[in-house]
Write a structure and sequence with these properties.
The chain has four helices and eleven strands; from the N terminus they run H-H-H-H-E-E-E-E-E-E-E-E-E-E-E. Strands 5-4-3-11-10 form a five-stranded antiparallel sheet. A four-stranded antiparallel sheet has the order 6-7-8-9, with no helix packed on it. It has a two-stranded antiparallel ribbon with strand order 1-2. Strand 10 and strand 11 form a beta hairpin.
Length: about 240
């Protein structure tokens, strides 16, 4: 019995040393790959969030040939699109004093083989700074709900705007003939704001325009349709 106590103490001491060494190894070991990825993803998302991406002028100005620009939009010159070298369209006219005014501008390309299939849409603030851009969109989306009791159109969410802009454009809509094609059928909604921009207007005519232009590069069978309208984006 007398010799068992020292042996027990030695065994207990050895066990304590073993556990201490094991804890040191575990605590000093590198974090598992999943933990490293998780931390990295969180850090990246805090830097490259949605607002940052949508406000990047390079991202918003170089995405599509339809809305290519030589000079980016600004409060002095506005913005002009150049889908090809000899075709241009004044997409945004600035208004420094109308802080509640935004502009939506549209471009589509049609070839002789069929109707419009895709379009681009850009939203600007009153100084013609881009807030959002959508490229290569299916034009059928703008006529969502056509012929039903639930005419809706398409939603566009832009950076720094609290509401979606809803644009409804009938499938037969031709921007160059808005005076002959029941223009009241096209509408915009933004928050509490509602407008039929080619039927009645709450800003001067100088900010509205629509036109069809023939392609110079691709020949007479190819045309571009453009429109720009303004809406109250601070309601």
């Amino acid at each position: 019995m007398g010799s068992s106590t020292p042996q027990s103490m030695v065994l207990l001491t050895s066990l304590i040393l073993l556990l201490t060494s094991f804890n040191a190894i575990v605590l000093g070991a590198p974090a598992p790959p999943t933990e490293v990825v998780g931390v990295g993803a969180e850090a990246i998302s805090n830097i490259t969030d949605t607002d940052f991406l949508l406000n990047s002028r390079n991202d918003l100005n170089t995405q599509s040939s339809l809305t290519t620009v030589v000079v980016q939009g600004n409060p002095d010159t506005g913005e002009t699109w150049n889908p090809e070298p000899r075709v241009s369209w004044f997409a945004c006219k600035p208004s420094k004093n109308h802080f509640d005014m935004c502009t939506a501008a549209y471009a589509s390309k049609s070839e002789k083989s069929g109707p419009h299939l895709r379009y681009d849409l850009v939203i600007y603030d009153h100084n013609c700074i881009r807030l959002g851009a959508w490229t290569n969109q299916d034009i059928a989306g703008l006529a969502t709900g056509e012929g039903t009791n639930d005419v809706h159109g398409w939603d566009f969410k832009a950076a720094n705007l609290p509401y979606n802009l809803i644009v409804y454009q009938p499938s037969w809509f031709v921007p160059s003939n808005v005076n002959h094609y029941a223009p009241w059928d096209m509408f915009l909604k933004y928050g509490a704001y509602f407008s039929r921009p080619f039927y009645w207007r709450d800003w001067g005519n100088e900010w509205y325009a629509s036109e069809r232009k023939k392609s110079v590069t691709w020949g007479p069978g190819t045309t571009y349709d453009f429109w720009r309208v303004v809406f109250n984006c601070k309601n």
